[in-house]
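Cross-check.
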Amino acid sequence: MESLKLSITLPVKAEKLYKAWLDSKQHALFTGAEAKASAKINGKHSAWDGYISGKNLELKTGKKIVQSWRTSEFAEDAPDSTLEITFKEKAGKTKLSLYHHGLQKGDAKKYTQGWKDFYFAPMKHYFSK
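Predicted model, tokenized:
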């Protein structure tokens, strides 16, 4: 199994960023692709027109989101990976730290670039407006 860690600091309060991640409309706006989200434990989520799917495992308002996570590229018998996102606010800016683990061999490199290209870059643009 493989894992990856990434972080980005955005000019937005932690609670607003947390709520945006768990809101279908806002998630779609900051990624630029269709998303369905839930702010409930065991609530299902999907993003990028169904490419990503999973459910919420742990939620601490404004602090932490833990989700099961898989893409349509995962082998059918492959277990879900786990995505842990933490939010640390300082002076009106928030450091979003992402720990993605339980990935299949060879996937960490691919998904590291995916997080940068399909989440961090558009989020930076969206939250800097």
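The first strand starts at residue 2 and ends at 10. The CA atoms of residues 38 and 83 lie 15 Å apart. Passed to J.P. for a second look.
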